[in-house]
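Example 3.
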Amino acid sequence: DGGITQSPKYLFRKEGQNVTLSCEQNLNHDAMYWYRQDPGQGLRLIYYSQIVNDFQKGDIAEGYSVSREKKESFPLTVTSAQKNPTAFYLCASSIWTGELFFGEGSRLTVL
Amino acid sequence: GQQLNQSPQSMFIQEGEDVSMNCTSSSIFNTWLWYKQDPGEGPVLLIALYKAGELTSNGRLTAQFGITRKDSFLNISASIPSDVGIYFCAGQQDSGSARQLTFGSGTQLTVLP
């Protein structure tokens, strides 16, 4: 089945550690996105990529990094510079109309 | 950046009741999208609206693109327990670019048996 796969679903991190969240899609979408979701808030854009080997900062990129070496993959690294990384992270891809298709999310907890 | 005001923030309703929620903005949008998010899952697209005044249905769900292009409404008729979740609106200024999506803060819906 076509879709977006995020892993891991749950992740625990100690302060000062970098962690990488995986996002893979087989929808043949050119554009991919990472959003952060906090309780009671809307989705906030971290990074997005419209084509391979190119990506742009979103509204809250500080403390995060991404790569887009393949069309199907858009991993997100949460670095130790991110001061409040505990959140639910959502990966998405889009067709030409801009409608987003989301993965199931990864919940990161900093211990 | 743009802001979307989504209301109500939460709703508790009895099974079988109808539900209404809305999003408003001071900015004009060219596209309105409505998503539903089940607990611990990613949002799923329910309805997409592309034209001012457009009224679109998806089963028991009906959404409207406001004539001023600054608001949108979602109605759910005859609610059932599986309607529980968070409903998000999203407005898009530049059709064809998800980069321009702005999300509302969500409406948490609880359906009581």
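Chain A touches chain B through 29 residues (CB under 8 Å). DSSP finds no helices and eleven strands in chain A.
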